[in-house]
Amino acid sequence: MLEKDPRNISCSTCLRRKENLLSGIMGEEVEHLEDHKTCNYYKKNQYLFVEGSFPRGVFCINEGKVKIFKRGDGGKEQIIQIAKGGDLVGFRAMFTEDAYKVSAETLEECNICFIRKEDFLPMLDTNPMLRNGILKELSRELADRADFITNMAQKSVRQRLAFSLLLLMEIYKDEPINISREDMANFVGTATETLIRLLKDFKEEGIIEINIRKISVLDSKKMLYVSGH
Amino acid sequence: MLEKDPRNISCSTCLRRKENLLSGIMGEEVEHLEDHKTCNYYKKNQYLFVEGSFPRGVFCINEGKVKIFKRGDGGKEQIIQIAKGGDLVGFRAMFTEDAYKVSAETLEECNICFIRKEDFLPMLDTNPMLRNGILKELSRELADRADFITNMAQKSVRQRLAFSLLLLMEIYKDEPINISREDMANFVGTATETLIRLLKDFKEEGIIEINIRKISVLDSKKMLYVSGH
DNA sequence: TGTAAAAAATGATCATTATCAATATTTTAG
DNA sequence: CTAAAATATTGATAATGATCATTTTTTACA
């Protein structure tokens, strides 16, 4: 259970901030951030923003997981990314001055801070470290997505699932992976039924363990092998 | 046939530059650019850079098409993007201070200018317009790749081919699309044989016309319909 | 805490697309 | 201009993965 009134989260002491893109912010800029950010508790399955709407600022996840996804023409979700504590979410659309091209929804209860555009963008001009960090981050994500596309095009569903489970393992750290079969299928890019069958295979092969819906990877070496990497 | 000694290409009068990210460069910065850039003629199938190598600068395509691709674990290429005259290529890896994650190879003869890192990066600090342009461009491409991933996951090969042909149509402007079946298959993310069969279908349906290997889209409205968008 | 709704799991079937093999056409280089 | 190499095309077959229908389990909440 998370703190439901997270207003006391402080930027100056926030450990998340010290490890993310905002770590370059110093002195009075931190104070300004602290005074102007808001922080809210989100239940599971709440939207942060929706495809087509216009960005008002950037979200900084303190606790919890958020899925970033796009709806295909049939309305089916494709999950592009799963963001976790420490990640900044939704700042890309701010630069294009365009509507969001993806949506963001919590996968579990979250504490998430919000920094308005007007408070965030000026820091780009005054803070070369932040600027460079963002350029670096955008470039890194671009490279990740080239990988994603290549995997999608060239790997079997079994291989993609294996690789996705390794990614999810990193996102969920030591905790078991706790995500609905449908979301997982929409991340891997397959049908829910196919995903469930493959999970069963992995279980029978001793690579994973399933408790109710939570998945633990038992043999990540074998998983990497199965992923074809 | 292209000019094989393109040293006379001038940044100050370059129409390509005036329409791309470098349009914000003014006055003596243009002169500096002009003095420090180099410009070369490339034959078909020449590499600009290879996955794993380290970037020394950025390429500015004056004439010709360049494929940006990644090799999957089997060595098979996945084309991520096809760059054309006016496009800047290879600047992402410069920000990550990391090796290239993709390769770039000419699809036809090209004239391409090269700006060294040392001449390019400092402009980021002095030129907010360039900086914002690049943030915008990176964000836009990130959105494009989310689309790419979603199409890859949710659309049939037939739909993806239709969509790819529309993209290629824009890239090739009025000229017929001139790209090998293998490259096209590696862009769509399918087997060459499947691609050829589908092209045949499109031809029989009157949506495209094929001359030797060059493809002209006859009915782009129908093509859009077939693409499922 | 019981019940309805949602999510997960299983089974059967079908369609799409990959793969392998062979041939035809086009391009390249001597 | 011609032979060799590369590319494009066609055919046959197999495998992967989607879809639809149904049952079981889990979750939410009155």
Describe the global form of chain A. Answer: globular
Q: Number of folding domains of chain A?
A: 2
Multimeric status of the protein: homodimer
| Spatial arrangement of strands, main beta sheet of chain A | 1-8-3-6
CATH superfamily of the largest domain in chain A: Jelly Rolls
**What's the N-to-C terminus distance of chain A?**
37 Å
Sequence-ordered SSE layout with sheet pairings:
The structure is a homodimer of 229-residue chains.
Chain A: H1 15-18, H2 27-36, E1 38-42, E2 47-49, E3 57-63, E4 66-71, E5 77-83, E6 88-89, H3 92-96, E7 103-106, E8 110-116, H4 117-126, H5 128-154, H6 157-171, H7 181-188, H8 192-204, E9 208-211, E10 214-217, H9 220-227
Antiparallel strand pairs in A: 1-8, 2-7, 3-6, 3-8, 4-5, 4-7, 9-10
Helix pairs in contact in A: 6-7, 6-9, 7-8
Chain A binds a DNA duplex (30 and 30 nucleotides) through α8.
